[in-house]
Amino acid sequence: MFRVLGRVSLLVGSLPGVAAASEGGGFINLDRSMLIQALNFGLLLAILWRLLYRPFMAKLEERSQAIKKSLAEAQAAQAEAVRQREEHRKQLEAAYAEAQSIRGAAVQEAAVEQRRLVEAARAEAGRLVEAARVEIEQDVRRAKQELRREVGDLAVSVAERLVRRSLRGEDHQKIVADAIADLERSR
Predict the structure, then answer these.
(1) Does pLDDT of 16 surpass 60?
(2) Burial of residue 142 (number of CB atoms within 10 Å: 0-12, 13-18, 19+)
(3) Which residue from 23, 54, 16 is spatially nearest to 38, judged by alpha carbons?
(4) Does 20 map to a domain?
(5) How many Å apart are CA 43 and CA 36, to the nearest integer?
(6) What is the residue range of 178's domain?
(7) Mean pLDDT of the region 107-119
(8) How many domains does the chain have?
(9) Does 149 reside within a domain?
(10) What pLDDT, in 10s, does the model give residues 40-88?
(11) Average pLDDT, whole number, for the chain?
(12) Is the confidence at residue 182, as pLDDT, over 60?
């Protein structure tokens, strides 16, 4: 604004020289009205300067400061966003590492459980084999006892046949009577 006022005053100051050069009824007539008009124009410039230009420049400065402040806030927000992005990246890495450790622990736990199940299956298989062996031994004993009983019955039957052929009727009656007496006593 100072430049504008300086140019206007230079122009107003040079007007009398221009007017004097063209004294013979030139384009500009230099009289008192010209001086009053120049004074009015200067006064108008001063008033406009005070009432419009200064508030306008203050508003421009305020706007400039607001823009600078907004830019600073934007830069701070961008820096905060970068910091948060880095923090989230670190949290993701930590979560990934934790997931890996949990996965590793689960794999180890599964291996332990698998070993335990295999050992339990082996123990159960051993128990079943032992139970089958015991049952087979019992079956063999029963079969032997039954075989002995059958062999004994067969031997008795064979002996009875032989005795019938060799015993006479009186001996036979005596043996039957002794057997009946034994039966009566055992009751």
Answers:
(1) no
(2) exposed
(3) 16
(4) no
(5) 10
(6) 142-186
(7) 92
(8) 1
(9) yes
(10) 999 999 998 889 888 899 999 999 999 999 999 999 999 999 999 999 9
(11) 81
(12) yes
List, in order, residues 6 or more apart from 5 with CB less than 8 Å away. Answer: 45, 49
Cα end-to-end span (Å), the chain: 150
Q: What is the pTM of this model?
A: 0.38
Tell me the DSSP string of 19-47.
Answer: HHHTTTT-SS--SHHHHHHHHHHHHHHHH
Cβ-based neighbours of 175, under 8 Å, separated by 6 or more:
163, 167
Q: Which residue has the tokens 């306008």?
A: 56
Q: Is residue 18 part of a domain?
A: no
Q: Report the distance separating Cα 68 and Cα 56, nearest Å.
A: 18
**Looking at the domain assignment, is residue 162 inside a domain?**
yes
Average pLDDT over residues 152-173: 66
Instruction: State the residue for tokens 């830069």.
Output: 75
Q: How far apart are CA 81 and CA 95, in angstroms?
A: 20
Contact assessment for residue 51 and residue 57, using Cβ atoms and an 8 Å cutoff? no
Give the per-residue pLDDT at 176. Answer: 74
